[in-house]
Amino acid sequence: MNYFILLFTTIIIIQAFYTLIIMTYAWKDEDEVIKNNKKRIFIEPKLSFTLILPARNEELVIADTLLSLANIDYPKNLYEIIVALEPDDNETYTIAKKTIDNKSISNARVLITDKLPKGKPTSLNESLKVAKGEVICIIDAEDEVSSRLLSLANTTMVAENSDVLQGGVQLMNYNSQWFSTLSILEYFFWFKSSLHYFANCKIIPLGGNTVFIKKQLLIDCGGWDQYCLTEDADLGVRLSVKGAKISVVYDENNTTKEETPEDVKSYIKQRTRWIQGFYQIFMKGDWLKLKNFNQKFQAIYFLLWPLFQIMITYYFIISLLFFPFLKLNLFISLYSAIPLFLLLIQIGFLIIGLWMFTRAYNLKFYWYLPLKVIVFYFPYQVILSIASVRALYREIRGDVNWEKTAHKNIHREKFTSYEF
Amino acid sequence: MNFRFLKIDIVKLLKDNWILLLSFIIITIIRSYGMFIYPYYENDEGVYISQAWALLEKGELSHYTYWYDHAPGGWFSIGLLVKLMGGYFAYGLNSIDAGRVAMLIMNLFSCFFIYKIIYNLTEKKWLGIIGMLFFTLSPLVVYHQRRLLLDNIMVFWLLFSLSIVTIKKIKMSDVMLSGILLSFSFLSKESAIFLVPPIIFYLYNKLIKDQKLIGIFLWLSLFFTGIGLYFLMAFNKTELFPSNDRVSLINTLLFHSKRGKSLPFWNLESEFRTMVIEWAIKDSFYTYFFIIFSIIAFILTLIPKIHYKYKFVFLMLGFYNLFLIRGGIVFQFYIIPVFAFIALAFPIFIDLIQNYIKINKRILNSFLIILLIGISLTRIEMFQNPIVFTKNENVNILNALNWVRDNLSEDKRILIDNSNWMDYKKNDNFKKFENAHWFWKSELDSTIRKDYYNNNWKGVDYVVATLGYYEAVQAGIFSFNKEVTDNTFIVADFQDNPKYKVQHDIYRAVNGDWSTILKVDNDESKLNQILESFKENNMSKAGRVIENDTRYTKALDQSEFLNILVRKKDKNNFDLILNWAEANMILNKNEYIVSNKWGEYQSIQKILDPELTTQSNLNLLQALTSAYEVWKDESYLNKAKQLSTNLINKNFVSINAKLYPKDSNLDIFENNLYNFSPTSCNIFAMSKVAKYISVWSEIKENCYSLLKESLIQIGFISDKLQLNLNDGTWRKINNDKNANFNNNLHLIFNYISNDNLYFPSETSMSLAKQYEETINSRLTKYEYFNSYIEYDNKDIYPHTSTLSSIANLLYSTKSKNYTTFWKNNILKKLNYDDLDIVKTKSTTDSLNYLSVYMRYKGY
Predict the structure, then answer these.
(1) What is the pTM of this model?
(2) Where would I find the beta strands (DSSP E) of B138-252?
């Protein structure tokens, strides 16, 4: 028993420190902070872009998303918008078409594809075939993009000679549901800090949107995996294997804003899909082709992280419930308490992150938000671990259908009625 | 030479850093040469090496019950190092030597950290080297840094932490590591907490805007994780909160916070000022430099223009000084962190002058060179009078250790200083004294005191006295150890310092370079021998106590022996003696009261003196009452009741409705004070006798009034002073001054002493103290007390009973002269080892001596 606790505690301590290092990577030293915070001077538009907007049953949000894309401050002749829809989605089609026509969005078009299997990767691959831009960018149906998004991408990709750019994505409804505060913090640290760390390690699980990829590289890679539930992360691994130069930029003024799912059920479904997708990528084994050990280690870490999460969450619960009653050696009981302190540090750090988030986006930092983080930290970990278990169960059963997340447009301060 | 695999060009490295290397060699020599012989092994060093052993070998926090004296990080570090370096007995002759080797390694690392920190802050190697030398070149520094002390370990971790946090291009991982290292520092010695504010100040200024909050949060949280674990440990063991029946972390913290004199530091009596004097004895220049420089540094921190990196170093010195002058206890070794802060602050100060004072660089540099040469000159004394390298302060301690190993069996119960704990108990190459224990624990750990010493000083066989031991005994809070030591005599004395001779009689020593083996006089066989000898010589088989010369039997002796037997719980002989007295000394068979003397006259054995002396019958009453209490035999109680009634009727007189004891049953109006026995009165008053005869308390008060009056009248007790019971006036029996003292004087001392011992009251103590004062004045005047003092300073043969009674009196007042008196007047003069007393002295004297000797033996 003692050896088991020692081993498990050691793993958790290493993991906790590793997490802290990843979470704080954006502030790791003066150079990194200056690099991330430097004032951006946009260069002349050089690159042309195709913004692909795959959607399904997104009639509530599609109009606003289209409008925000149309308002991007970039020469209209240097970017196009493709709304990729499925034939049976009349409502979304109607709203999208009306928006394009009524608002005269000349560089936008609707692409309807009936290719199988249905799903986002198929839509993306079909759009890729007709895309005209040098760089492909994926935008989700509910995304509120910055008007300077393309200028930022153009500047960064040219300046850093990047093949791939992951832009910042940020959930905004930080105070709507009990879990949303922790959810937005996860995004905040992931895009602001962790992805920089992974990019530095030359292995990155790309996000589902605000991702810019050179078209030719994408074609060379064979596009998106239509059978993978997280085709974006899978593409990131494959691009890393190919040695693509990947940049990450998180600029609070130019992030793509999104929303958290409306309820726990939807949230678990969304997470289940992501986690299952990661399991699929792990099983596919493309990561084994990565060149060095560090890249492989990082890949294993983020692909199997959900499994660690199950273990850690339940270890904590079990240790809190049972350790006081076990007659443990004093040192082992103290040693096994270290993760608890590291957990407290992590919670404290999340609160600091929350304060930084509200400051960066000019939002109100309510006095009770820290309490919300403290109180819901564990329940939040429990729903994540439920999603992990569920994903494992689905993967074992071979259940790979896409559980779509509904979007209600609550991340937008103002939104357009779709009744034109 | 180019070690390519290390990517280091050794030749270039040596060429670039030869001064640094040379400095390190010099520093290593200064620190290590003579480190096993100087300074002397100190109790605390032994505590930490023993605790390191307990932690690493037994998995326990201490070799005794852990009481949160300090967090265990210090001895954990030292234990690991000692293990890595070959074990506890791998160096020198004492386990502490292994600790000192570990300390040397830590100190050398500390030196390097000093260099590194200064280099990080100034980018000047030569300033780093000055810092290192400042960290070494002082007898005061060497004295303390060689010792295995938690403060040295705390400084090591602290400097390690600072060497990370001062890195020019600091990373968040450095900040985190620094916080963790400082928590190790705190877990080694809690005073590290005083360095937190300066480090936060530094981080706040060092980190850029977006890093500040995160960096400070991470640093603090990781630092407090270490502290939190310490508190959690206490909580886990249910020893966090104060409790009456077990150790508690909070209790200990409160204890530490209240230690020492809470005087302001400017007060001459304050702990800080006292220590400044102590430090100055070892290195006056360094001590006063520290004080003056601290003031300068404090002023510099107030100047806004000065760069934060300078202020940071000055603040560390300042905050630690706050701890020193806080008004609590300050030990000598509390100066150890100061060495580090001065070593950092002085080179930083030079850098500050170079950067801020805008005068001709040549003039400035000349000034600095003169300053450094001046300081260096003060250091030369260290080599002129090189006691730190040559003086052997440990040879006597080791000789004492060897004496014990050579002369005592392993089962002996010994009180030891913790500096040799490992050597007495855990060295496989020598005898292991399982019953040897650290004197702190014999005093403060009731389990140790009970299990090993039966809660009685007689349970101890030997004491290995050291400076630490005598200091503790002298401090007055170690009453058990004091009692043990009071009952010892020297069997082996190891000291060779002619300047500071140990004063064993008052338990005082100046330095710790000695050790003495004290044998506890707990041998019961001697008492038994004396008793047996007395029975053989002075007691008939029928139960009669016989005078040596006259062969008579006095009621006083018979009753006194009854009291001795009841104290010894010897019921057979008690009954024998009592039965004989009842059969032969009671004059009137209808009354239970004994006559004064029995013997043979003209070949007829009979009562020779029918006087029913008060004191003999009081003695008998006391013996009967005690016998009932000891054996719960109702017959004794019945006899006591009867005797009590008869005694009051016959031997007490009522004056103004107050009862006073008379000299005898003879109807004379005078009173010898020796009839007075408040102890007996008290014993009777508290015993079942009081149920029947309730006047004893009242009698006691009446008697005390008489005694007080006697003191007022003549200033001292004289048993030839008489009170006219009719008119209440005092008179001397005759005008011969010598006649005012006789053999019975001692009885009064005895009575008062017994009362003061068993029923202490303000009256008994004040009387006893007044007698003690007179006795002390005579003791000062003459080496031995002479009851016939009026015989003009002649050292005549002392009166045994009187001496015994005086010893009893001094014992009852807890006089510091008690031991001296006992040793000088009783043991030496009476030569009790030869059992001469019971053979050559009168029976009364022998009984008195036995009575007091029994008390001395704990009866």
Answers:
(1) 0.78
(2) none
Chain-chain contact of B173 with A28 (C-beta, under 8 angstroms): yes
Confidence at B261, pLDDT banded by 50, 70, 90: confident
* Long-range CB pairs of B323-326, under 8 A, 24+ apart, other chains included: B323/B191, B323/B194, B324/B265, B324/B272, B324/B275, B325/B265, B325/B272
- Considering only CB atoms, B171 lies closest to which of A28, A342, A356, namely A28
Size of interface A-B (CB pairs under 8 A): 65
Cis peptide before B39 (omega within 30 of 0): yes
Check CB contact under 8 Å for B218 and A349: yes
ipTM confidence: 0.88
- Alpha helical stretches, state H, A71-194: 90-102, 120-130, 149-159, 180-189
pLDDT class for B689, splitting at 50, 70, 90?
low
Nearest chain B CA: its distance from A63 CA (Å) = 37
3-class DSSP state of B159: helix
Task: Give the Cα-Cα-Cα angle B324, B326, B331 (nearest 5 degrees).
Answer: 40
- B217 to chain A nearest CA, in Å? 8
Q: Which of B57, B80, B173 should be substituted to probe chain A, the one whose Cβ sees the most A Cβ atoms within 10 Å?
A: B173
Question: Regarding predicted confidence, which is higher, B526 or A284?
Answer: A284
Chain A interface, best mutation among B76, B172, B184, by max A CB count within 10 A: B172
Cβ distance of A341 and B229 shorter than 8 Å:
yes
Q: Is the dihedral of CA A355, A361, A367, A372 positive or negative?
A: negative
B218:A20 CB<8 A: yes
Strand partners for A49: A79, A135
> What residues contact residue A360 under an 8 Å CB cut-off, 6+ apart?
A252
Tell me if B171 and A29 make a contact (CB, 8 A cut-off). Answer: yes
Q: Assess contact for A164 and A244: CB atoms under 8 A.
A: yes
Residue B669 has pLDDT above 50, yes or no: no
Cβ <8 Å between B211 and A33: yes
Whether residue B217 and residue A348 make contact (CB cut-off 8 A), yes or no, is: yes
Q: Say if residues A361 and A175 touch (Cβ distance below 8 Å).
A: no
C-alpha to C-alpha distance for A83 and A93, rounded to whole angstroms: 9
Mark residue B68 as left, alpha or beta (left: phi above 0; alpha: psi -120 to 50; beta: remaining): left
A316/B820 Cα distance (integer angstroms): 67
pLDDT over 90, % of chain B = 46
CB count within 10 Å of CB B536 equals 10
Chain centroid to CA A350: 18
- If DSSP codes are grouped into helix, strand and coil, which group holds residue A83? strand
What is the amino acid identity at position A366?
Answer: Y
Nearest-CA distance A18 → chain B (Å): 10
- Report CB contact under 8 Å: B228, A341: yes
